[in-house]
Amino acid sequence: MTRRKMLILCTGNSCRSQMAEGWVRALKGDLFDVWSAGIEKHGMNPFAIQVMAEAGVDISAHWSKLAAELPEQEYDYIVTVCGHASENCPYFPGSARRVHAGFDDPPRLAKDAKTEEEALGHYRRVRDEIRRWAEGLPDTLG
């Protein structure tokens, strides 16, 4: 079976889209070739790297990038994981199916956390929600 090409988009390609790329590679790499990118570049979020490592998925070599920095190709699926990316998704030629799978923004949730552990709790919750989404692929693509 040919692997399908998936692009996961978020606002800054620093957290949610990176976690989603990591989970899809780890859990469904036999079904999908996957990339992630952002509408902007915010750099990698160290808490995202940390909580993914806790779950056994290494995203420490990932980097924040724009879709224009990826090889030019047609995708089968373009998945937005935040509302801003969904509303501002760049145009991609071809027949890619656009899917929105929204997740809360861990940095926003954690900004008022009193401790690092409290902040990490938000990242872990979203990490686990993204994992459940990835485990359900391809069904979770609608």
TrEMBL record:
Keywords: Arsenical resistance. One of its GO terms (biological process) is response to arsenic-containing substance. Transmembrane segments: none annotated. The keyword Plastid does not apply. SUPFAM superfamilies: Phosphotyrosine protein phosphatases I. The keyword Glycoprotein does not apply. Residues 4-140 form the Phosphotyrosine protein phosphatase I domain. Pfam families: LMWPc. Coiled coil: none annotated. PANTHER family: ARSENATE REDUCTASE. This is Arsenate reductase. It comes from Desulfovibrio subterraneus. The gene is arsC.
